[in-house]
Amino acid sequence: MRPSYSVVVPTLGHPRLGLLVASVRETTARGQDPLDVLVIDDRPFGARGPNQALDLGPGPVPGVRVVRSGGRGPAAARNVGWRSTRTEWVVFLDDDVVVSALWAAALVRDVTAAGPDVAALQGHLRIPLPDDPRLAGPEHARWATTDMVFRRAALERVHGFDERSRTADGGDADLALRLRTAGWQLGRGTRSVERSVRPARDLAGLRTETHNADDALLRARHGGSWRARAEVGPGRLPWHVAAVAAGLTALTAGVAAAVLDAREPHVAHAVAALAGLVWVALTAGLAWERAPRRTVLTSALAPFAAVAYRARGAWRWRQGLGRTVPARPLPVRAVLFAKGALVRVVPDDAGPDVVEPLPGARRVLRGLRADGMFVGLVWDRTDAGCGHLTVAQADTVGREMRRVLGRVDTWQLCTHARTEGCTCREPEAGLVLRAAAELGVLPAECAVVGDVRDGIGAAVTAGARSIVLPTDAGWA
Questions:
Q1: To which CATH superfamily is domain 5-197 assigned?
Q2: Taking the complete model, does pTM exceed 0.70, yes or no?
Q3: How many CB atoms lie within 10 A of CB 388?
Q4: For residue 158, what are the β-bridge partners?
């Protein structure tokens, strides 16, 4: 039997996205096509308007679904992708690559030949530029999800990507280490994708240094040898630190020579000159190494950005010094209830002040509060946006629910009509994400409790855990 697979493409709206989607659809021959193609739109909610669609190319694109993840970073977007599929394998593609005509056939061969202990197979990245040793980094990056196919069982075993990682590189390395620790094998496949490398404009390349903050998390979580075990190379941080130290020394000594009334100013001049030469040499080396992808100005400022990001990451994850940062899954700190999980559905003609709690609902909420949990209500199936209830009446229902159920730490209500394309209604995660932000917890630290109609799709999209209350029998 041919293994089933889905394709997940996280994106921020890259201009080459339509070309990638078209190439994926064209390469899937009969009997080799994916069960599902998901484009995960990770643009922040409201940043570009809720109805602005991604450019997937001219005309409708059959077999492609778009799911929004709310701008929570690449790890969260990938988790939304694989949790929204049900296939045995899930392949992740970057939004700026193009697959070859034989890519789908090679992918099927790769996963068919994989042994039962193989968690993931990495594809090959081709960069169509003249031979240049400076391009070795991106072409040979280990475990990059540029083109990486994962076995669903392995992702479930380790709970997917760690959403505390804010860069793709950090999330990739962390996942590889956790899979290997869990006893899975990682390998390479035979398929390939193509990407064009363009020079960074202005200071855009400085954003790539954010991975240094993730490096601090990786060190806190996996120990000082994480680079060797993840096979990602020694890193450039020591050189960045040396460049920053040389630059600051040259600046300080230069100011001292020019401003201070020193008895031997030539000493300060000599120190400034020597430190300046060291800084120039280190900066020139970095500029040469990254020339195909960075401007000279970006290369000069990169060490300072790298050290700043690393310092920020080290401060944030300082609790990991001497002990391991807690692994996923993170503990549940908040429980969010859909309306149907706490009260019976009230008929439209009964009035907004008629609220009947399900049996045992009060007892469950008292127990959660006693355990120190946040409790919230997320109501995305309200009739307020459909004309059955006014917004004021919906607020009345909410107040009555809180009166009969007790204290509620957050109350999130959707008042949009179905035609407005809001980010509240399932499977969108707007209400869950807003509740988590108001409570000051991560979405992964939330559990969403819904009935068979409400809450579960939003939980999957938000990266929260979900609990289904199958009937209206209540909690008794």
A1: Spore Coat Polysaccharide Biosynthesis Protein SpsA; Chain A (3.90.550.10)
A2: yes
A3: 11
A4: none
